[in-house]
Each structure stands twice: as structure tokens, then as C-alpha cells.
Amino acid sequence: MSSGRRWVREFRVRDYDLGATLDSGQAFRWVFRDGAWEGVVGGRWVRLSSGEGVIRAESGVDPGNWEWLREYLRVSVDLEAVLATFPPDAVLAEAVRSCRGLRLLRQDPWECLASFLMSSTKQIPQIRQVVGLLCERWGKPVRGSEGGPMFHAFPEAGVLAKVSESELRECRMGFRAASLRAAAGAVASGNLDLEGLKALSLNEARARLEGLPGVGRKIADCVLLFAGGFDAAFPVDVWVRRALGEWYFPGRTVRAAEIMALAEGHFGPYGGWAQQYLFHGIRKRAGRVAPVAGLV
DNA sequence: AGCCAGGCAGAGA
DNA sequence: TCTCTGCATGGC
User: Fold this and answer.
1) Most buried residue, A146, A147, A153, A264, by most Cβ within 10 Å?
2) Predicted model pTM
3) Which residues 158-217 of chain A have a CB under 7 Å from nucleic chain B?
4) How far is the CA of A71 from the C1' of B10 (A)?
């Protein structure tokens, strides 16, 4: 083991469940090891753990002023204020109770888009595997500490744009490879300005993303919610569809249009957060969530 | 062994 | 506008 210098920063937080946040299907690169979460954010390795009213971040290389991590974790978001915007219904109250401290991250738009492009009809552990393979093969090497083991950043769009479809398929992503390659080309060429989406309306930004092959309503909403700052974007996947159907329309079959109308109209300006509570809540109930607790 | 997974797009009704 | 289907791959 290296005994070199370590940089540490503690963020004062309350009601922040790091495990639920990092392992609820928003991001796919966090690994829980020796009591902490290890990952790479914006090309920087970091190790996160929960303490008494704080999130503790460590790195073995100079992290600068840590603002990149504060932004990623959205430490300054007032969760109580977010929850106060939720409609007062019993279903949502129960979901919030079962996932106390779950928060949304602010991720890099390219990593988020690419990851969710590879996600369709895959289980979360499988998505993690595919993303991991992609990073190992084409991501820039990153060290967590002087002389320590090597990690990898998420591959840049410009790199993936030059990779052949069959090489991408070697990362086990199957038919999704062509879409990933096309998206990488659009981003690398400047044809699609992901940062610029943040200045658009939700509908405009969504339409831009849906212009990419392989990106429909659901993947677009994931990117807008998890990376674009659109807290009202409400991705509807199989789990959320199940939760809305079972809990808001119990005992009968529901048409897809009814689900979408509820998703768009019921949950308010932080609907995406409500969506994440419903998603994590029903997956928890189904036994699909690893029991790593840690509410600060 | 067969069904399902943080979907999408094209075809046919 | 709805429903059906193929697409790759792996977990359960």
C-alpha cells in the first residue's frame, strides 16, 4: 500500500443517504469497498464515506478545491424544501419514508447519455459491467494515489467516435453499440451541444436528445434529470411504470397514456426526485437493492 | 428453461 | 394512435 499524502474534505450534510444515492441506478461506476464508495468523477478518483452529519471525501492525488465534488453530490440542495414540493399523497409519502436521504446527483452529461444508451433492456448489474468494460478499454488511466492502483475515467466522446461498432460490441453492449457510436460522433463534432441543453426548455432539450438514434423519451429524460438540471424530468421505465400502475391504479390494468399523463401532471417541479423515490422504493421492495445503509 | 431487464424503432392494424 | 416484434446479452 502507498503511504503517500492524502487529501480529505468533509461536507456537512443531513438526511443524505450516500448508499441509496450512489447505488440507485443513477450512476453506474461506484463500488463499495472497505466501508466506502470508490469512483471516478470528472476524471478524478475519489473515495466517499458517511460520518456524523458529514460526507467524508478522500483522495491520494490533489483534488483541487473539491467544488467539482460538491456540485456532483449536490450537497447544498435543501432536501426538505424539495420534499415539500411533492403532492401530498400517501403513495409518495410511503416511498419517501422507505428511501429517506435519497438524493439526485448532478452528473456529466456525456457520461450520463452514453451510460443510458447502453442501458436499454439490461439489468442494473449488467449495465455496470458494460460501462466498466468500456472505461477499462477506452478511458484515460487515473490514479487514486501515488503508486496506487490504476482506475479509468469515462471515455471521451471523441475517442469512442473513432472506435468501430464491432470493437464496442466487445464490451457486451450488443445492438446498442451503433447508437453509442452515433452519439459519440454527434457530441465530438459539436453537432450536439450537451452543455447547451441546460439553457433550453425541458421540451426543447428533450427533442434535441431524441434526435439521436437509440434515444427515446425514457433515455432523454434520464439525461435531463441526472445531468441536465431538469428536476421535473420524469423517466418512466418498467419499474416506474409498475410502481405507478400498482400504487396509483390498484386492481386494474392501466393504459400507457394514463401512466404518462400521471407522470407529467402529478408530481410537480421536482417530479424527477419523486420518480427516483418511486423507482428505488419499488426495487427495494422487490429485493433488487443491495443492503448498504448509511443515512447521515 | 423460460422470462425479464432503468428501450427503441419500424411495421402493420 | 395502439400493439407487436426484433434487437444482445446475462441473471435468476
Assistant:
1) A153
2) 0.97
3) 175, 210, 212-217
4) 41
Number of separate domains in chain A: 2
Nucleotide nearest to A104 (CA to C1'): B6
3-state secondary structure of A122: coil
CA distance A100 to A42: 27
**How far apart are the C-alpha atoms of A47 and A30, rounded to whole Å?**
9
User: Could you say which DSSP state residue A206 is in?
Assistant: H
A50 strand B contact, CB < 7 Å? no
Residue A258 lies in a domain: yes
Could you give the C-alpha distances from A198 to A85, A127, A256, in angstroms and in order? 22, 26, 29
Nearest to A274 by CA among A56, A46, A57, A86: A86
Is there a single domain that holds both residue A157 and residue A238?
no
